[in-house]
Amino acid sequence: MSLLKLSHISAFYGPSQALFDVHLSLEEGQVLALMGRNGMGKSTTVKVICRMLKNRGGSIMFDGRDMARLKSFQAAKSGIGLVPEGRRCFSNLTVHENLIAASRPGEWDFAAVARLFPRLEERRDQLAASLSGGEQQMLAVGRALMTNPRLLILDEATEGLAPVVRQEIWAAIARLKAETGMAILVIDKSLKELGTVADTAVIVEKGVSVWHGDFGDLTPEVTDKYLGV
Amino acid sequence: MKRETILNAALLLILLAIPLWAQSADEPFIITLTTRAVIFAIAGVGLNFALGFGGLVSFGHAAFFGIGGYAMGILAYHAQTYTPLMEWPFVIEGTKSMPVIWLVAIITSAIVAVALGALSLRTSGVYFIMITLAFAQMFFFFTISWPTYGGEDGLSIYIRNDFPGLNTMDPIQFYAICYVILLLVLFFVYRAAHSPFGLALSAARQNEDRIQAIGQGPYRLYLTAYVISGAITGLAGALFADLNRFVSPTMFSWQTSGEIMIFVILGGVGRVFGPVAGAALFILLEHQLGGLSEFWHIYLGAILLGVVLFARGGLFGFIAGREVAHD
Q: What is the SS3 string spanning chain A?
């Protein structure tokens, strides 16, 4: 049984329809790459999964449970950890406090996050606002892990970061996949890096999921057609 | 050591030194004045938990201050008149025991805070301010028209309540009780502010959507903070009533809510020790400026304007800088 299953999802921002017919399915322990050009509905799909935006049509099942009536904090409580686009750490809290504020019982605690990102241990008592972009991103990933999720969603996790920092983030994602068996949904523009971690892929075009399959089955024709600029 | 830690320690030492000096100099009035400052500080620390950490601008905390006061007044009144508080379905007697009165004040304030918070927190911004003010005014007008407990004239208690092993009529001993309670409240608030709950509350103040993304419902966080805040302010109300041996509807008035808010703003919103500094400064100004003119509130208003315009972190922010919002 799929851990996460979206069927025929449609969603609106006010009167404007953003999603028309999105399907995706993610198994436990799998990494799924959600791809598409800018403005095609990737982040909107994530918002719907996290219940920040209610879908008007279709169904979302997570761990066998219908998510339709859940509020966003209930979705997070049920085991969905989100690393939002733009990091969005709590700037008025320190690194340690950002992580403790999110903590829920489980194997992920401050020590475990610090093992994954040793830099956070070094910056432990620094305000989040004073961190570099890369460190804020590590903090955002760590904060999502502190909720001990079964599904981790990374929305543009490496956007705008220096190449060295990007490598650190991708290495951390690879470690999470190898060592925890956590299901991960990644949105990113870098096909090369996605290829190192993703098992399956879904491409969204104008609010419709137009391609899905194993990541290895992505052909140059498909990427040119749906992802080329 | 951080400047703020030094400031905290200095503040506690000053609040300890003044009454000790006053005792040796045979100045009981100064002890009573400092006791007032400490009790107001407790009320301010209570409001600060909701306002400073949760961003809940409650303009009705006099409701809890008054409930704490009336919890003391009613229990002590029935004890001194040897009449039961109620006879059916079971008998409840009055009491002169401070610990019991404090417990009743805390529980009653907390229960009322659950009810008021559950309704008020469905609003936000200016509506939240107005609804909390409206609830406090409801209590104010109710007590005015409640003849059983003195109505508009209030209720006098002839003897101060008892605390095991202490002579509570001795100003310095009653001060010691209030000072220890302030320390306990500060310790509790400090621990709560640094717990996962307190940090999530501070985070929710910054961004409610983001806090939901990590599995925390803002409503539950705010309600818990409001209840804790109300319970602490209720305890302060019980102590204030014991200090004056008198309760009246004034404890519920919007001026009282305003004064408690002034302690927080003067000292520093969101700083654990901020309201302590604010209450101490308020009492100092009241004492010094009050001697100069009966219109001393004009000067207080000017100072408050200065703080809001030029020192938004209050006294603490001005001296210790803006380090961590809730520290």
A: CCCEEEEEEEEEECCEEEEEEEEEEECCCCEEEEECCCCCCHHHHHHHHCCCCCEEEEEEEECCEECCCCCHHHHHHCCEEEECCCCCCCCCCEHHHHHHHHCCCCCCCHHHHHHHCHHHHHCCCCEHHHCCHHHHHHHHHHHHHHCCCCEEEEECCCCCCCHHHHHHHHHHHHHHHHHHCCEEEEECCCHHHHHHHCCEEEEEECCEEEEEEEHHHCCHHHHHHHHCC
Between A228 and B101, the more confident residue is: B101
pLDDT of residue B326: 46
| pTM of the model as a whole | 0.90
Q: Which of B285, B281, B276 is nearest to B38 (CA)?
A: B276
- CA–CA dist A85, B178 (Å, integer): 50
Of B106, B148, B143, B116, nearest in space to B232 by CA: B106
Q: Which residues of B touch A97 (CB under 8 A)?
A: 194, 199, 202
Question: Residues of chain A whose pLDDT is less than 70?
Answer: 229
3-state secondary structure of B92: strand
Question: What are the tokens at B53?
Answer: 């950490």
Euclidean distance between CA atoms B173 and B159, whole angstroms: 15
* Nearest CA distance, B89 vs chain A (angstrom): 42
CA distances from B70 to B9, B77, B102, B106, B154 (A): 33, 10, 11, 12, 10
Q: How confident is the model at residue B322 (pLDDT cuts 50, 70, 90)?
A: low
Burial grade of A111 (CB within 10 A; 0-12, 13-18, 19 or more) = exposed
| Distance separating alpha carbons of residues A73 and B211, to the nearest angstrom | 8
List, for residues B110-131, the tens digit of each pLDDT value: 999 999 999 999 999 999 999 9
Contact A27, A183 (CB under 8 A): yes
CB contact under 8 A, A73 and B217: yes
Tell which A residues from 48 to 67 touch B, by Cβ distance under 8 Å.
Answer: 50, 52
| Distance separating alpha carbons of residues B159 and B67, to the nearest angstrom | 20
CA pair distance A206, A212, nearest whole angstrom: 15
pLDDT tens column, B178-188 = 999 999 999 99
Of B210, B202, B222, residue with least CA distance to B123: B222
* Across B245-268, average pLDDT: 96
What's the CATH fold of domain B3-22+29-320? ABC transporter involved in vitamin B12 uptake, BtuC (1.10.3470)
Q: Residue B325's pLDDT band (boundaries 50, 70, 90)?
A: very low
Domains along the sequence of chain A with CATH: 1-79+152-160+183-229 (3.40.50.300), 81-149 (no CATH)
Q: Among A165-179, B75-89, B303-317, which is the least confidently predicted range?
A: B303-317
Q: Which residues in A201-214 are b (16+ Cβ under 10 Å) and which e?
A: bbbbbebbbbbbee
Confidence at residue B327, expressed as pLDDT on a 0 to 100 scale? 43
Residues 75-94 of chain A with CB under 8 A from chain B are 76-77, 81-82, 84, 88, 90-94
